[in-house]
Structure formats: C-alpha cells, structure tokens
Amino acid sequence: MSPLTELIGGAKAYGWGSLSDAGDFQSIATATVGSGGAASVTFSSIPATFAHLQLRMFAATTYNASDSIGVTVNNDTTTTYRGHQLGTNVNQYVVNSYTDTLGFYGQRTGNSTSGFFGCIIMDIFDYTSTNKNKTMRVLGGVDFNTSASPYNSQIYFNSGFYPVSNTAISNLVVFGASGNFVEHTKIALYGIKGA
Description:
By secondary structure, this protein is mostly beta strands. It is built from no helices and 14 strands. The chain is globular.
C-alpha cells in the first residue's frame, strides 16, 4: 500500500444499485489524504479472493472546476483504455466516448476553490479473470450549490473496459485527471464476494 493507505479489516457496507447483503462487501483498504495533498493514491497487492472490486470516493482536487477521476490498472499506461459517459450539468446533457492510456475515468469531484467534495462509486468486475476483458461502471456526482458554471450540480454515469484479457488486477492507482487530491479526500477499496 501507499503511505497514505491504512488497512481497515472486516468493515461491511451496502452496495449501490442492487439488493446486496451488507456481508457481501469487505473492506480491503482506505486512504485519507493529509494536509499536503496527494497526486494519487495506490492500492497494491490486492487480494485475489473476491469476485469484483468497488472503489468508494469522497474527493476533491486542486482543479478549478469539477474534475474527472482516473484509475490505472497494474501501472499500465501504454494500453488504450476505452469508455463511455452519460451525464448532466445543470441544463446541459453530455453523451460521449473516450480513449486514454492513463486509465478508466469516472465523474465528478469537487475542488479546493469551492470547498465542495464529490462522491463516486466505481465497480470493477471479474478483476481476477484471465480470460475476459475487465469492465467497470461508475456513478458520480457533485453539487456546488449554485447554477453558475463551472460551480453547479453534476451527475455522471460511466462505463469502460481495460482491453487486456489475460491479466488479473492486483494494483490500482487513483488520480485526478486535472489536479491533485486535496486534504480530507477519502478513497476506500472493497472486495465484493461471489454468489
């Protein structure tokens, strides 16, 4: 784990978008960013004992508007990750696709200028599989409590995949696309048990 990461064993919490029992989720590690901020948070040596992974984030970055959150798999910054997003930004709707060599992307964080934090939940499916592509889904949003762009209410839904089918995931690096994480950002990694 990175120096920012502290282990919290045995914690249980409900997932989103399902009727999962609380016991289906197990805390693997939690990182809380200190006063100096952080460019990224790393979860390494992820145990291969779950069916899926879930990242839960309460985050803001130094970027002057809402920021995207990226997640690099196994330190791989050469493969082209692919994804789609659907979102709304006050009265504006966003539908697009993306490719990037740095990782998956999920929306939206707060920022240090406004003092607001965003909430993001990212599921990474079949992370130990060696015969299928790794896919993800993300739900994230932030409310800046004003209608003045760029400080407004936003919610996004993303999907994506990591097109390397024969590699299990053992390492995740979480970062802000345009800024560093600010103090009090909290990122937790959970394992989801199989049926």
